[in-house]
Specification:
Number of domains: 4
CATH architecture of the largest domain: 3-Layer(aba) Sandwich
Helix content: 10-25%
Number of helices: 8
CATH class of the largest domain: Alpha Beta
Distance between the termini: 32 Å
Radius of gyration: 31 Å
Low-confidence stretches: 361-387
Structural class: alpha/beta
CATH topology of the largest domain: Molybdenum Cofactor Biosythetic Enzyme, Chain A
Strand content: 25-35%
Length: 439
């Protein structure tokens, strides 16, 4: 780690080398298996939705012109000529001066061009109905093909399929679709002191945090994690595990064994099997992170400290994994906020700092008044902002989560994190910053 890359290089180098891999692998899945997959080609509807004019209310189908000028004091009196049965095309039509009873989802009969809500009508018991509020053509109904027109593209290639997309496809009778094939990611934890999370540690042992955490992070990206047994601090054991993982998966994540210690074997293994693209990133925490090209597949060595491993996954691995899955770049959501207190940082190295959102501080008036920061001040991201507001339009404030290095519990109390630039000495109270959200 004599020469380190900066965070942007650590992200861009694997993107340029591997960003196009896996993008052309496709398979056909049923709707039941489509959730979360990335659509491989456009879907065009062969039929319209809905296939007929339908009511969106319980009430009476009418000709709108027959209701013009009516009111509670002077209702329009229409003759009831029938009732629309659900799932059956009406066997009668509405002519001038008539109406038909209809339920939500029923087919609007020929001649009718609106539906009056049930609450705005009164049946008199003599075969007539009083309409007490006027409607315009199209009120309380949707017309044939309003939702989808035949031949119209419904979903475009590259879309991540969500539950409402599946509903749309089902409405058109589309029961399967072509999606990009799963990207498989090997997750390997190393360390003599590590045991599986379901075992009780003995002596100086510790439960594995990284493997379940990274597997969940991989799954959240739409890829398929493959967990391998914990590897001891032995060179040959790690070499064998990585070789097997490269045969079975599209990407390899090794956590632990990435620093410059005598028993840190990850760099040696990746160098023997392929080309080490970098080893060391000018960031805290996460400096030992490495990336290699092995059989034209990406392999990452992540720090053993869970906090550092998670930050580096989010910043370096996630963008590449999203690209490989066909979803483009994935930077996560960002929210602007004003720092409640200053955060010192080491000059010459960028730093991740976990933060949580809080209510307006006692010094809010001072901050808003500009004594702590200028209205267009630059945040930790180096970008200018006119303000920092939450979704309700109120000014958002964030405070750092103070914790010792490596404690994963610190992230449970955080809403996100900021990145303090490499060439700054920290962030000051009142400064506007970009908070990268965890969820």
């Amino acid at each position: 780690m004599l020469t380190v890359v900066d965070l942007e290089q650590a992200r861009s180098i694997p993107l340029e080398r591997f960003g196009g891999s896996c993008a052309n692998r496709k398979r056909v899945v049923s709707l039941d298996g489509a959730l979360g997959k990335v659509l491989a080609r456009d879907i065009v509807s062969e039929e319209g939705v809905p296939p007929f004019d339908r009511s969106t209310m319980d009430g009476f189908a009418v000709r709108a012109a027959d209701t013009f000028g009516c009111s509670e004091a002077l209702p329009a009196i229409l003759t009831l000529v029938g009732e629309v049965e659900m799932g059956v095309a009406p066997d009668a039509a509405c002519s001038s001066g008539t109406c038909m009873r209809i339920l939500t989802g029923g087919q609007v009969p020929q001649g009718a061009d609106a539906v009056v809500m049930l609450e705005q009508c009164e049946e008199y018991g003599d075969g007539t109905v009083g309409i007490m509020r006027a409607v315009a053509p199209g009120d309380n109904m949707v017309f044939k093909n309003d939702d989808v027109k035949p031949g119209e593209p419904v979903l475009r290639a590259g879309v991540g399929i969500a539950p409402h997309h599946i509903g749309s496809l089902a409405s058109m009778g589309i029961t399967e679709c072509e999606v990009l094939d799963d990207v498989s990611v090997a997750v390997i934890s190393t360390g003599d002191e590590i045991v599986d999370e379901f075992r009780k540690p003995v002596g100086a042992q510790m439960r594995d945090v990284n493997a379940p955490m990274l597997a969940a992070a991989v799954r959240a990206c739409g890829a398929r994690p493959v967990r391998y047994p914990i590897v001891p601090d032995e060179y040959d054991a790690l070499l064998s595990a990585v070789r097997r993982a490269l045969e079975e998966c599209d990407m390899v994540l090794v956590s632990g064994g990435s620093s410059a210690g005598q028993r840190d074997n990850t760099a040696r293994v990746l160098s023997e099997l392929g080309e080490l693209l970098y080893h060391g990133v000018a960031i805290k925490p996460g400096k030992p992170t490495m990336c290699a090209a092995v059989r034209e597949k990406p392999a990452f060595g992540l720090p053993g400290h869970p906090v550092a491993a998670y930050f580096m996954f989010l910043e370096v691995v996630r963008p590449l994994l999203a690209r490989m899955c066909g979803a483009g770049d994935a930077g996560g959501r960002v929210r602007r906020a004003t720092l409640r207190e200053g955060i010192p940082s080491n000059h010459g190295r960028a730093e991740f700092v976990a933060v949580r959102f809080e209510g307006e501080p006692d010094c809010a008036s001072r901050l808003k008044g500009g004594q702590g920061a200028e209205p267009h001040s630059e945040g930790a991201s180096g970008k200018a902002s006119r303000g920092a507001f939450d979704e309700d339009g109120r000014e958002a404030f964030a405070s750092p989560v103070r914790s010792k290095s490596g404690l994963i519990s610190s992230l449970a109390a955080a809403d996100g994190y900021i990145v303090i630039g490499r060439n700054t000495e920290g962030a000051s109270a009142g400064q506007r910053v970009d908070v990268r959200l965890f969820s």
